[in-house]
């Protein structure tokens, strides 16, 4: 799937999504730069999570969903006939709002995740390498056989990030990854996202505009299933082109 000349990791073309007859996404045309952080903002129910789930075909799991248009990963349409959604999810990892480690040891969360995704190698080394990349190694290196559920919420979320990157994705989707966390854990994850963008394209849904301002290179403003504005975060926040964006940013609705 990788094309090193591509400026954009992900592009959507005329993407619409219906839950039965209700249209939740309307003709979305967005491009996401490689190895940048992009934030999706907008009021609750405007389609941010639905959009995020289109990028790794998670919506396939919902029966009422119908999709029109295309999602291109490095010019490869992930919705074309014959594409295996499981393979797509190996290229596009996901981290959820609520940390969801497997009810297994810290070590097995990574080792088992790699095994079921066909990653081979020295698991001891790979577990250490990925826990280091997720900034968790020092805190857990002496208790790798302890249950992942014994970790704090922030540590569990970093474990989920380690588990996602252990599969070697190009893209990491994050759906409000810090909204269940305290401010210190949130800062640690935000710093981690900043580091991860050296190697990954990251798209994050956040209801926290300050967070978007801190970590996102680009921001898209969603409203009622449409993208009202997309651009560099500073431009969208300080010099928005659309009156609706301005009203949302300045807190007049949402
Ligand atoms: P956001 O992430 O911006 O809060 P969502 O993507 O969760 O918005 O929701 C967008 C719209 O799609 C909402 O009207 C929501 O009720 C609807 N929706 C979300 N998930 C489902 C689902 N599984 N079945 C039916 N409608 C859904």
Summary keywords:
alpha/beta; binds adenosine-5'-diphosphate; 254 residues; 10 strands; 4-stranded antiparallel β-sheet
Quick take:
The protein is α/β, with parallel strands linked by helices and 254 residues long. The protein is 34% helix and 26% strand.
Notes on the protein architecture:
The protein has 254 residues and is of the alpha/beta class. Helices cover 34% and strands 26% of the residues. The protein is built from ten helices and ten strands. The protein has helices spanning 48-54, 85-91, 106-116, 123-133, 137-140, 153-165, 183-196, 209-215, 233-238, 243-249, and strands at residues 8-19, 22-33, 37-41, 65-73, 76-77, 92-95, 171-175, 201-205, 218-223, 226-232. It has a six-stranded mixed β-sheet with strand order 6-7-8-3-9-10, sandwiched between helices. Helix 3 crosses helix 4. The radius of gyration is 18 Å and the shape is globular. The protein starts with 7 loop residues before the first strand and ends in a 5-residue tail after the last helix. The model is unreliable at 1-6 (pLDDT under 50). Bound molecules: adenosine-5'-diphosphate.
The hetero compounds bound to this protein are:
adenosine-5'-diphosphate
Q: Give the rounded overall mean pLDDT.
A: 94
Biggest sheet architecture: 6 strands, mixed
Low-confidence stretches: 1-6
Order of helices and strands: EEEHEEHEHHHHEHEHEEHH
- In helices, the fraction of residues equals 25-40%
Helical stretch count? 10
Question: What is the gyration radius calculated from CA atoms?
Answer: 18 Å
Distance N to C terminus: 38 Å
Strand order, sheet with most strands: 6-7-8-3-9-10
């Amino acid at each position: 799937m990788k094309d090193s000349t591509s400026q954009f990791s992900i592009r959507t073309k005329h993407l619409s999504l219906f839950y039965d007859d209700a249209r939740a996404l309307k003709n979305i045309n967005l491009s996401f730069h490689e190895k940048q952080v992009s934030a999706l903002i907008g009021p609750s129910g405007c389609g941010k999570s639905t959009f995020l789930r289109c990028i790794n075909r998670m919506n396939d799991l919902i029966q009422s969903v119908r999709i029109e248009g295309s999602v291109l990963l490095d010019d490869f349409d992930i919705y074309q006939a014959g594409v295996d959604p499981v393979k797509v999810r190996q290229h596009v990892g996901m981290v959820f709002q609520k940390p969801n480690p497997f009810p297994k040891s810290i070590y097995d969360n990574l080792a088992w995740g790699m095994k079921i995704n066909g990653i081979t190698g020295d698991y001891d080394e790979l577990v250490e390498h990925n826990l280091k990349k997720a900034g968790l190694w020092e805190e857990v290196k002496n208790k790798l056989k302890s249950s992942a559920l014994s970790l704090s919420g922030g540590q569990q979320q970093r474990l989920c990030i380690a588990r996602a990157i252990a599969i070697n994705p190009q893209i990491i989707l994050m759906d409000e990854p810090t909204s269940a966390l305290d401010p210190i854990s949130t800062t640690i994850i935000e710093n981690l996202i900043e580091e991860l963008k050296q190697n990954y394209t990251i798209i994050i849904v956040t209801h926290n505009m300050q967070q978007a301002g801190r970590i996102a290179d680009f921001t898209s403003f969603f409203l009622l299933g449409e993208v009202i504005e997309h651009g560099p975060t500073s431009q969208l926040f300080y010099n928005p082109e659309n009156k609706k964006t301005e009203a949302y940013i300045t807190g007049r609705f949402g």
